[in-house]
Write a structure and sequence with these properties.
Largest sheet: 5 strands, antiparallel
Mean pLDDT: 95
CATH architecture of the largest domain: Alpha-Beta Complex
Distance between the termini: 63 Å
Shape: globular
Structural class: alpha+beta
Number of domains: 2
CATH topology of the largest domain: Aminoglycoside 3'-phosphotransferase, Chain: A, domain 2
Bound molecules: adenosine-5'-diphosphate, magnesium ion
Helix content: 40-55%
Number of strands: 9
Radius of gyration: 20 Å
């Protein structure tokens, strides 16, 4: 077994499941996946894999590879619903951001077919690691999102909408981001979450605005920062052509989430995030827009709560979103009041 196949096999063992691999690659066979990645690198880059640096599976499957020619790349393979056209849109915007000096990996090649799905190849950008989140990072995160959105103004966002993670207009949730969460099989007991998700989604989706290109998973899982600025941002298939206030509301609810993180922000903290974003972009949102930001934050919390419920209905381990939904729901639906000065 090659070193890459060994890494894939270890990751599957550590996750306790090959569900993600089976959706992304159509197989959980580590040797088959490694050999498809090897042939992808030969075909697309005309070189070979020298060593495997890392491999991870969560939404997609990501492999960090050192190549024979000395360069380092990352191959990200997607679930089939991440379409070719969408991924081309991602590459255009990501390329423009990288050229502007934004701290994101530079696209290298793709989209290319890989075992039934699609993959993108991008340059390796060393991960400085998730740091302990401090309050000072709140404004760094909010200002960083404002910079990302500003740099993409005027770019062609076609292809980025709908995002593969958007729920249908008439549906409540998207197909969960990972096959680990089975919403249908776990509906019992989730009715209260679904009601809040519906209330939030109705307000959010009734908002009509010219869309912006925004990274819609602006959480510390993807955004590396210190107390003075952004260091590196990953996961660019989270780009969407979305209403600005929706992107900001989602970010306000999720910005501090890291693996194993504690509770989600309160409504007051969400209001502060939105206000700091307004300051960074140099213009306040109107009352109606702030209401939509609150609804988007509430929907993001409800979606996380629904994922928590799917794997931990008794709230034994995963308690990031559900307690906040219970206490903050009304304040979030009236975020404009909290922000009024
Ligand atoms: N271009 C890259 N260079 C270096 N590390 C990367 C790169 N892309 C992703 N990573 C690493 O892999 C992790 C997962 O990548 P990400 O794109 O966020 O996948 P997912 O969609 O599964 O969350 C990142 O947090 C980062 O540590
Ligand atoms: Mg990620």
């Amino acid at each position: 077994m090659s070193a890459l196949a060994g890494l894939i096999s270890t990751s599957i063992t550590d996750c306790g499941t090959d569900l993600v691999e089976r959706v992304v690659f159509g197989t959980g066979d580590a040797v088959e996946i490694a050999s498809a990645l090897e042939s992808l690198v030969r075909r697309s880059l005309g070189t070979q894999i020298e060593a495997a640096m890392f491999y991870e599976a969560s939404v997609g499957c990501v492999a960090g590879l050192l190549l024979h020619n000395g360069s380092k790349v990352v191959v990200k393979a997607y679930q089939p619903r991440w379409s070719d056209e969408f991924l081309r849109g991602v590459q255009r915007a990501q390329g423009a951001l990288a050229s502007s000096g934004f701290p994101c990996p530079r696209p290298v090649s793709g989209p290319v077919h890989l075992l039934g799905g699609h993959a993108l190849i991008e340059a390796y950008l060393a991960d400085p690691g998730q740091r302990t989140i401090t309050q000072a990072m709140l404004s760094v995160s909010a200002a960083g999102l404002a910079t990302q959105i500003n740099l993409c103004r005027g770019l062609d966002g076609s292809g980025l909408r709908p995002h593969p993670m958007d729920a249908d207009r008439d549906g409540l949730y998207p197909i969960p981001h990972s096959p680990v969460f089975d919403f249908e099989a776990t509906a019992a007991g989730a009715e209260w979450i679904d009601q809040l998700a519906q209330a939030a989604k109705t307000v959010r989706d009734d908002h009509v605005a010219t869309p912006v290109i925004a990274h819609c998973d602006w959480s510390a899982r993807n955004v590396r920062m210190n107390e003075t600025g952004l260091l590196a941002v990953y996961d660019w298939d989270s780009l969407s052509n979305a209403a600005e206030v929706v992107a900001v509301g989602q970010a306000a609810a999720t910005w501090s989430a890291v693996d194993g993180s504690k509770i989600a922000p309160s409504a007051n903290e969400i209001a502060t995030y939105v206000a700091l974003y307004e300051e960074a972009r140099g213009a306040r949102f109107g009352t109606a827009e702030r209401v939509v930001a609150g609804a988007a934050a509430l929907y993001a919390l409800a979606y996380t709560a629904r994922c928590e419920h799917a794997i931990d209905p008794a709230e034994a381990v995963h308690r990031r979103a559900r307690p906040r939904l219970t206490t903050e729901r009304d304040a979030l639906l009236e975020l404009a009041d909290l922000m009024a000065d």
